[in-house]
Structure formats: C-alpha cells, structure tokens
Design goal:
This protein has helices at about 75-85, 90-105, 125-135, 160-175, 195-205, 220-230, 235-240, 255-265, 275-280, 285-295, 310-325, 335-340, 345-350, 380-385, 415-425; strands spanning about 1-10, 15-25, 25-30, 40-50, 50-55, 110-115, 140-145, 180-185, 210-215, 245-250, 270, 295-300, 365-370, 395-400, 400-405, 410. The protein is α/β, with parallel strands linked by helices. Helix 2 (about 90-105) packs parallel to helix 3 and helix 2 crosses helix 15. The longest helix is centred in the first third of the chain and has 17 residues, at about 90-105. The radius of gyration is 21 Å and the shape is globular. The chain binds zinc ion (ZN).
C-alpha cells in the first residue's frame, strides 16, 4: 500500500508530494509519487505526520471523568479514584479502555501506555485491556502495575511473589505480538514496597524491558521517602539499584538539583504529564533543567479524570506554555522540541520503533487537513501543529499500517454504540 500526501514530515523536514510505502506494518520507504500503483491511497490536501505517543495513561479512568473534577490529589484519590475503581468488573474495565483508546485515536495518538493496576490477583483484566486495544487497533504498552501498599483497594494489591510471577508471565505471553508490549511498573515509592520495586526491576532485567514507576508527583512523597527510607525519591531509587536507562520515571515534579543531575548521570528517562499536573495542582516539573541534564523525555496525558483531555498534541502545547509561565521566558521549549517529545522521544523512551516517518519504522501515521482554519496561514506548519491545531484537523490515522480512523471516523468500532454503553454503565454515578 502507498499513501500519497501533499506533505510528509520526515527527518529531512516537510517533503512535498511524497508516497509512503507500507508493508507488513512498517514503512518500507518514502519516495516521489511517480506512476500510479494498485492500492494507492491519495490523501489530497493532507499532510502526514508521525502518530503521537501517549507515554502515560490509566485507561479505566476515562469512565471517571467529571466525577471529582475540582478536588486536590488526596481528595480526588480518596473520594473518586478508590471508590469508583471498585465498581468496574472486567467488562467495565474493557469498556473504559475502549472509550480511552477511541478518543485517543481521534486525537492522533497511535501508541498508548496503560499503566494498569486493577489486577484482581491475576492477569485476566490486563488481558481484557490488551484485547480491547487489539480490536480497536491502537498500539499498546501495557505497563503491568505491581502494588502492595495496604491503604489502596484490595483489587490493586498482590504479594511480591505473585506480582513478579504474573508480570513475567504476561511479558512472555505477548513477546512477539506486533502491536502489544508488556513492561513492569511498580506503582511508586509510596504504592510499592522496597521488595516490590526491586522485584519489578528484576523482571525488567530478566526480560530486558523498560521499567515504569510514578515518582514525586506530590510534594509529600519527598518527605515521606526521606522519613521511611532515609533518602529523597530519586536517591532512594538509585540506592535500590533501579535507576538506569530502562527506568521511566513518571512526573518527577518535586526533584532537587542533585536528583535531576543523578537522573542524567544514570540516563534515566522522564515521562511528563503537564495537563494532569496542572489539573491536580501538583506543581511544575523542571523540564529545561532535565533536558540540560541529558534526560530523555516523553509526554503523557495521564488518566481521563485528571486532565481531562486525551491529546498528545495538547500536551506538547502545555509543555511549552507551562515552562514559559514558570520561567517568565517566552523562548523556552520551542515547538520543534515539544513535538519531538510527543513523537520520536516518547517512542524511544518506551523502546519502540515508532514516532518517525522513515524506512524501517512502524507504520503509525496521522493525516492532517491542510485547509483546516486552525492551520492558517501556513507560514510555519509545525509550529501551527503544536500551538494552534484543532483536533478536528486530524482526519485519518493508521496503526501498524491499518486504517483505524478515516475522514474523522473510527473504522473499527461503532462510536454510537460505544457511547451508549458508557452512558449505560455510568448511569447515576455521583461522588
Ligand atoms: Zn499515573
């Protein structure tokens, strides 16, 4: 199959009138259009950009949107997250994933990390999320959470041995799956014990995968790890031997200068969720400092009830704007840098071959409508994509070469039916 577009964003910048050839889920090449071929798809008036990478999310939380929108983190966790996550059976979990994936695809997200923690002492719920992703056609990184803090709901919690064994089994079962990757994710220094964090690291090392963990989202965590473990969060993880190139530390709002330097030295990675951090009033991660320390950075939306949008283009914009507010400097984090975080860097963070349009890369692509009012005037298209573009300008999406959105409509699921099922499930829900 060839996709013929007016503009294609490659490593060389915008290339005019190009054909992107796709075979077996990958991009075989980008070349001049030349003679027509059978199977050509002409995208007149459109540009192709890499699909965006949502490197941190909790899909079931899409169903909790609107329940406790104006609370702080602890209020939200104790009055919304914990009680309502108890209401979802396996079908509800799958429905939340479908809703989140459907919305993300419409916004041009082609890879989603689901940091998934409703385990019910098994892998069946995680498998339901994997099946939902496969059916709707989004690329999934299932960050299989390992949780043992006794203050959390029972269904999140497992023994260290059970969590490690199940996580290793799930990784093995999906190794070689073209659109699903499983990676271990001890919840956080407050949600997972020292033994659990170490066990997650050993699973990641044995299977050679990335390792996800929430770190220092709230200020309380620094004081708490210092009191309980004698070190601030990043130093604590370093002492445990779990800070390295496979580490994906999510949030990192409250790090001191030494911790930022340590992340750079260890080549640990950051996933940044600016909208969610703003929504919950967490604070502002020091992104330019992290960049200078050599930390690779991907972007995430976080859950649907702490954002409440599902667009990585939006997170690119917020990444730049929020740092400008913090530093009172309109020159920090230009659009090109933010775009890379939401595409190429996010993919590298996760260890997948996406985020770039080029030969050999995964065929995860987004078409945008060049005549859309939000992209006018077309003086600098990439800056417009980051700062100005409306989600309605996203018209078509391919994941692994499969068309999953065509002319703004999902091809794999009946949107009306999906919305009806969501309304039915959540009928009468109040905080
Ligand atoms: Zn999270």
């Amino acid at each position: 199959m060839r996709l013929l577009a007016d503009l294609v964003l490659t490593d060389a910048g915008w290339e005019r009138d190009r054909a992107v050839t796709i075979a077996d889920g990958r991009i075989a090449g980008v070349a001049e259009v030349g003679a027509a071929q059978p199977g050509d798809v002409r995208l007149a008036g459109k540009a192709l950009v890499p699909g965006t990478i949502n490197a941190h999310c909790h899909t079931f939380q899409a169903l909790l949107r609107g329940l406790g929108d104006d609370l702080d983190f602890m209020g939200w966790r104790d009055r919304v997250l914990y009680p309502f996550s108890e209401r979802l059976d396996r079908r509800g979990i799958a429905l939340g994933a479908q809703l989140a994936f459907a919305e993300m695809l419409r916004h041009g997200v082609t890879t989603c990390v689901d940091f998934f923690y409703l385990q019910d002492n098994g892998n069946e719920n995680a498998e339901a999320v994997i099946e939902a992703a496969r059916a709707i056609g989004i690329r999934l990184v299932l960050a299989r959470t390992m949780y043992d803090w006794e203050g959390a709901p029972r269904r999140y919690r497992e023994s260290v041995a059970d969590a490690a064994r199940r996580t290793a089994e799930l990784i093995a079962r999906h190794r070689g799956d073209p659109t699903t990757v499983v990676q271990p994710a001890p919840h956080s220094p407050h949600g997972a014990s020292t033994a659990m964090i170490r066990a997650g690291w050993e699973v990641a090392e044995a299977a050679d995968t990335r390792f996800h963990i929430h770190v220092a989202e709230g200020r309380y965590e620094g004081e708490r790890t210092l009191r309980e473990h004698g070190a601030t969060p990043i130093r604590y993880l370093d002492k445990l031997g779990v800070l390295g190139p496979r580490t994906i530390a999510v949030h990192c709002v409250w790090l001191d200068d030494g911790e930022i330097a340590l992340m750079g030295e260890r080549r640990a990675q950051l996933v940044y969720c600016p909208s969610s951090n703003m929504f919950l009033g967490d604070g502002i991660t020091r992104i330019p400092e992290m960049v200078r320390a050599g930390v690779r950075i991907g972007l995430g939306t976080d859950g649907g009830c702490t954002n409440n949008r599902a667009s990585v283009f939006e997170e690119m914009r917020m990444t730049s704007l929020l740092q400008r507010v913090r530093l009172l400097d309109g020159t920090v984090l230009p659009a090109e840098r933010a775009f890379a975080m939401g595409t190429r860097d996010g993919a590298e963070t996760l260890g997948i071959d996406a985020g770039v349009i080029g030969a050999g890369r995964l065929a995860d692509l987004v078409a945008i409508e060049l005549d859309h009012p939000s992209l006018q005037p077309p003086i600098d298209l990439l800056k417009n994509v980051v700062y100005a573009m409306s989600p309605q300008a996203v018209t078509d999406v391919w994941v692994h070469g499969r068309p999953v959105v065509e002319r703004g409509r999902l091809t794999t699921v009946d949107s009306g039916d999906l919305v009806a099922r969501v309304r039915d499930l959540t009928k009468g829900w109040r905080m």
